[in-house]
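Weekly modeling sync, notes
Attendees: AB, CL, MP (scribe)

Item 1: holo prediction request
CL wants a bound-state model with fe (ii) ion before deciding which constructs to order. AB pointed out that an apo prediction alone won't tell us much about the pocket. Agreed to run with the ligand included and paste results into these notes for async review.

Input as submitted:
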Amino acid sequence: MNQINRIDQIYCPTKVFFGPGSIDNLKEVKKTYKNIFILCDKAIPRETTGKIKDLLADSVESFVTYDLDSEPTATGLNRFLRKKTGLTDCVLGIGGGSILDSAKVLAIREGNIEDFNEDSEALPIITIPTTAGTGAELTKSAIVKSGDIKRGIRSEKLFPALAIVDPALCDSLPLELTKYTSFDALTHAVETYFSKRSNPLTRAISQLSLSIVLQYLPIAMKEFKENGKPTLQTRKELSYAAMLQGFTLSNASTCLPHRIQYALSTVSDAGHSAGLACVYRAWLNMAKPKIGNCDYKQIIKFMDTIGIYITLSDIGINKENIEKIVRRLDGSLDADPSFKDLSQVKKILEESL
Ligand SMILES: [Fe+2]
């Protein structure tokens, strides 16, 4: 079979430092940027924030924390946008996917998110993930809540200039968060492989990433049980799998579960991974994806093994919400090869209650 006819474009302009201790590369950053606006997850340990401040020293212009339960809000981000100065020359985000998304938004030149458009310019962005799941460290998009509406902010200008993926920063991540963020990485691998927009390169990466999560998430859970936390090697594997998916998210696409999760999160405050987990079994049974040699039934069995059983009812969604969720679906549904019409989505939601 001719392998390369389906590759039109590959783009990943982000420089990546990867590995335990890679945070030390921030020393180099201060040679380039002199007024860095840092957005930090409120839950980051003081030891880590202290180290970042030390490494960047005089190049720190502002250091603000954002207390986020789920997606960033337009109101919250506009407040931070106004804190930037004319001198700000870089925006650095340290935290989970929502914080990294927020940092991308804060890099835009406009004073309000609502003014962002396809011609908008952005300051250089640095991402430092402290979870392993979203792949946001390498992507060009951010999801922002504005009242009942969720908006995807996307632009090649929002590709981070630099990502520092230091698995040691995930050291204090609790078991449930480790499990659900890794599950997000797994869904990216499954969906970007299955997507109509995949190509031989992204599929190879998705397959590798999936095999790492399938092998190392159970190991991480065992290590939590036996030693209280996973080893650094296990964290490294899971961070690597998640980061690889940042590349495939930018160069392929996710499928129906991600479209549905965005819509259902307008009626529930549950996090991204939890929303995905609610609908995943029903979607797998409908779409029947095969990722290399891995059958969809193996993914369902894996969810059973790691104990992911959450339903829509668990996150406060009932039958009455379904029509509203279907109406709020957005984005390219047809990247999913199994998508035919909206009645399928309704069925997935009904089966996930
Ligand atoms: Fe995701």
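Recorded for review: The radius of gyration is 20 Å.
Action items: CL to compare against the apo run; MP to circulate these notes.
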